Amino acid sequence: NNLTGPFINIGGDNVHIIGYGAMIRMTRSDYTSGFSRHGVYIYGTNNTVIEGLLAASCGGDGFYVGGADGDPATNTRLISCRGRNNRRNGLTVANARGFRDIDGVWELSN
Questions:
Q1: Angle subtended at Cα 44 by Cα 68 and Cα 4, rounded to the nearest 5 degrees
Q2: 83 to each of 19, 22, 53, 89, how far by Cα in Å?
Q3: In sequence order, what are the beta bridge partners of 105?
Q4: Does the pLDDT value for residue 2 go beyond 80?
Q5: What is the pTM assigned to this prediction?
């Protein structure tokens, strides 16, 4: 039972996920401290597209987009994705170039 890392970890290039009607849902009460149990973790990637996915009740961010210094996530698009009731944020963009959030809804996080 891994309660410490992200649920979906994307570290490769040219990834396209179509998730209309799909949901990543965690049991939020399992995460009373820390913020690293993200629903979708996009790190140092190039050309990532995610469509229509809901990340709910995650122990960190619903979606996290970032990369190491000098190696940002590039050309990332989130289309009609949603983050709801996550422990930290629905969406965090920490280090990215060419990022687009199209019709995203980020709500009820705290």
A1: 80
A2: 13, 12, 9, 8
A3: 82
A4: no
A5: 0.93
